[in-house]
Amino acid sequence: MAKTLIIYYSRKGENYWNGSIKTIAKGNTERVAEFIQDTVGGDLFEVETVREYSNSYMTCIEEAKQELREKARPEIKKMPDISGYDTIFVGYPNWWGTMPMCMFTALEKQDWKGKTVIPFCTNEGSGLGSSERDLKSICKGAKFMPGLSVHGAESEQSKNKVANWAKDSI
Ligand SMILES: Cc1cc2nc3c(=O)[nH]c(=O)nc-3n(C[C@H](O)[C@H](O)[C@H](O)COP(=O)(O)O)c2cc1C
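Above are the sequence and the flavin mononucleotide SMILES. Below is the predicted complex in C-alpha cell form.
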C-alpha cells in the first residue's frame, strides 16, 4: 500500500468570505486536508511560518503581495520529510493567484523523483490559479494528478466532493 502524506498551509483568523470579512477558527485548507485524511488515510503535515502573517486580512493581503513580488522564501518552523512517501497531497489557499510563498520554502528543496503529487487549493473564486504550473516547476520528476479547487466559504460542506476526488486520485 502506497504511503500517503498530506502537506498543507492554512491560515486561521480574519479572512475574505463570500464578499465580506469573517474570522474563522479553523482554516479552510486545513478542513479539506482533514477530509482527505478521513478518506484515504495518510499523515498530515502543517507548514507553519516562523513569522506569523497578520491576523488582519487587509494587512495579510499586503504582506503576501510583498512576498510574492520579492519571490520571498519565508522561514518555516519545520521542513516536511517526504522521503518515506509515494503519494503527496499538497494543499494551500490561493494567495494572489498561486501558493503562499512559504509553500515554495517547504517544497522546492525536496527530491520529488518517483513521487505522485496531488494538489488541492481553497480560494474565493480564482480556482487553482497558476499554482499547478508553479508546483510542476518545483516538483521535478514527480507525476501529477489533476488538482482540486474548493470554494473556501463552502469548505465545511465539501466533504463528499473532496472524498470522491481523493479516492479517484489515489
Ligand atoms: C493574502 C491572501 C490572498 C488571497 N488571494 C486570493 C486570490 O488571489 N484569489 C482567490 O480566489 N482568493 C484569495 N484569497 C482567499 C483565500 O484563498 C481563501 O479564503 C482560502 O480559502 C483561505 O484558506 P485558509 O483558510 O486555509 O487559509 C486570499 C486570501 C488571503 C489571506
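Residues 4-169 form a domain with the Rossmann fold fold (CATH 3.40.50.360).
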